[in-house]
Amino acid sequence: MTHRIALALLVPALLLINATGAAAQVKPPPATPLPAVTPHTALGGLPAGLPSHLWLGVSSSPVDLAWLTGSGAAWDARYQYLAGGVNTGDGWAGWNTPAGQFAAYYMAASGGANVLPVFTYYQLLQSNPHSGGTEWEQDYNNLNNAATMAAYYADFALLLQKAAAYGRPVLIQVEPDLWGFMEGRAGAGGSAAGVSAAVASSGYSAVAAYPNNGQGFAQALLHLRDSLAPNALLAIHASPWAWGGADIGISHDAALDPAQVGQTVGAFLLTAGLAGNPAGLSTWDLVFTDLSDRDAAYYQNVQGDGGAHWWDLTDTAFPNFARYRAYVAALNQTTARRIVLWQIPVGNTVMRSADNSPGHYQDNRTQGLLGNGGAALPAWVDAGVVGLLWGAGQGDQTHPTDSHSDGITNPAPINGNNGTATVSDDDGGYLRAQAAAYYGRGPVPLPGAACGVFPDVPAGYWAQGYIAWLACRSIVGGYSDGTFRPEATTTRAQFAKMLALGQGWSLITPPTPSFSDVPAGYWASGYVETGKAHNVLSGYSDGTFRPAAAITRAQLSKMIVSAQSWSPVTPPTASFRDVPADYWAYAAIETAHAHNIIAGYSDGTFRPGGSATRAQLSKMLTLALGGP
Hints:
Largest sheet: 8 strands, parallel, barrel
Number of strands: 8
CATH class of the largest domain: Alpha Beta
CATH topology of the largest domain: TIM Barrel
CATH architecture of the largest domain: Alpha-Beta Barrel
Radius of gyration: 25 Å
Strand order of the largest sheet: 1-2-3-4-5-6-7-8
Mean pLDDT: 90
Order of helices and strands: HEHEHEHHEHHEHEHHEHHEHHHHHHH
Distance between the termini: 51 Å
Helix content: 25-40%
Number of domains: 2
CATH superfamily of the largest domain: Glycosidases
């Protein structure tokens, strides 16, 4: 399979960070509790800056950000292709001005929404002169063209410079398919070092020390990252069709050994920058692989594959989820890198919207991954998977958004898909509902994740236990520099998110925002609206919520007491001399005090108008949620 997609899908006309179009609430299907994670076998450390739980993300162009933040799911990541070629005039570097600003805008918008920006850097194939009759011939000829590669390294360096300016973690997958093509050219048991490439010979001075082969190409990219943007995480792509045998994603051969496929693909990747690098040079942080590049019904109905791309949900016939997971596990074991499942088809066989018309093709991989209350997810984590990214590999595939602008669609059912859509998503809203249910249950923790460990929260710090308890449940997190900043204040928007996650509420996104300063595209809009819907959060008389204002100790007490639905406690004698009986939050503060989640100061005051620190908030929320 390949990942060639229409350029129109790749190139946004301009960046619209505050696009409108937040959708209505989707009620998640009933969920069953997740089984416990079995003792893990996954190899490879978790790169710094990634979530400590299995994270979900979607393909998300700049204009799709409002959909992501208003979808009702607490997505951790969004991804965007960077393509168009390095010397064509159509490449990503020119999509905004000055050069490279598109990536800067995208990262900034992602950071503002508290999601990880992910780029699929797919520049080689579309660069000039791309001579040859096949994609591999075009890739190979470009890879060996000195002038093209000099422009390529400069283009990659520009992206890294923008990533460095962003300063927070950003994940870059480099050239899907290319490494598979290389593996095919190297032959059985071959090495990336046996495939020629213009590296030192390109004349680009920063990579002059690296050999003119595929291994040197990988090392050159890693060197550029090390020298320009250490905060950038780099991922190499594993192609399960390139190992010399059948494609495990579509093969019906019951004798196909998934361990052999994973070991063979992984062994080649070891020669492409995962192992054997010069001293002081980093390696790839993660490995991406993909289940399919198109919806199964597209292959069946449009390309006439006879149904080869459908997977068996019962894991009895082939291809299926269990066998592919065994391939992933072998890939993880061989490379000692955690795995990201990328460009997962969005279609489903549940919603009527998926009627196999363009933009609404069926597939069942989302059901196999997230369905049944996410029961399969711990096994994927055990196999080494750390993240799942959904997206369309071609413009007419099923998208999570209303990419075809045809609104809410509920055509006559086919194949038993009786689900009625209430949102305009091309898939009928199934993916967003399943993602919301996943986060609502509590995300699956990743083995080996050092949750709750922050350099500025030492073991002896008074609130360390409370902070760790919340962090290990993905209710609170740290900053991009790895710190927690326990003495810093917390904004009203930040606490709205913590409270919603702690309570396990499904997010609610009404069609009309409740507060004038919390628009649909605001990163915390779903959390604020959910808190309001549960009668826990309220705004001010001028119609604002003031999301960036520091939350006070009195406001915090009222919100927590309201969320817990505790009966009010109003003793005749006030517990704190600065909180009299006629104070607006008297009952909430006294109730919180009666439940032993708050205490005052040694002078007998509570200081209700004072800002609550992150440490104080962590203690109150932990105790309210039943923590130690």
